[in-house]
Write a structure and sequence with these properties.
single chain, 217 residues, outer membrane lipoprotein receptor (LolB), chain A, twelve-stranded mixed sheet, globular
Amino acid sequence: MVRKTGLTLLLLCVVGFVSIAQVAPLGKDIIKDFSVKLQSYSSIKATFTFTLENLQEGLTDTHDGSIALKGKNYLLDLMGMQVYFNGETKWQFIPEANEVTISKPTSVDGGFFDDPTQIFQDYEKDFKSKFIGEKVEADQSIYEVDLYPVDLSVSYSIIKLQFNKRTLVPISIKYQGKDGNNYIIDIKKFEPDVAIEATEFVFDTTKHTGIEIVDMR
């Protein structure tokens, strides 16, 4: 009887050890892999849907968008506005109004639309992570991780991240804003390491006849 009990306890310990070995790395290790993978890309082009969600008002507003990223440079096309940034100067062009606002950003508040290049950021360094689970959708295994920013001054409290378990390609990024608004980015197409010329991040005012220029530099 004692021997049987001992074997049972040993079996439970082995099973428990194997379970811990499988679960413990999840969260910190997978977010490190994800972060390193994204930072390894020389550039990214992606199309996505952007949803603004206000739970208090019961409102949702969804738009299609696209983005090109290379280093700190980006071109964001969303909600009737094209935003160009070449690492120094930002152009916000509204085609419908034929108007462009030019500025030199000096700081950012940490939000995706304030600095879309943060998709390259060091998630392991800048966030505390919590592994939520794994699920299967459309024949792909998806990891779900919650990220809590170390810098408490940013405009959001949590980033809820979903990415492909095998390829580490992002699928969904949800920012839970401190102002009660959530911002959800669902990736439709993701193309890493594509050729992007530096001129794509610069808005050429000479190509737009009669454009109104608001220069805030």
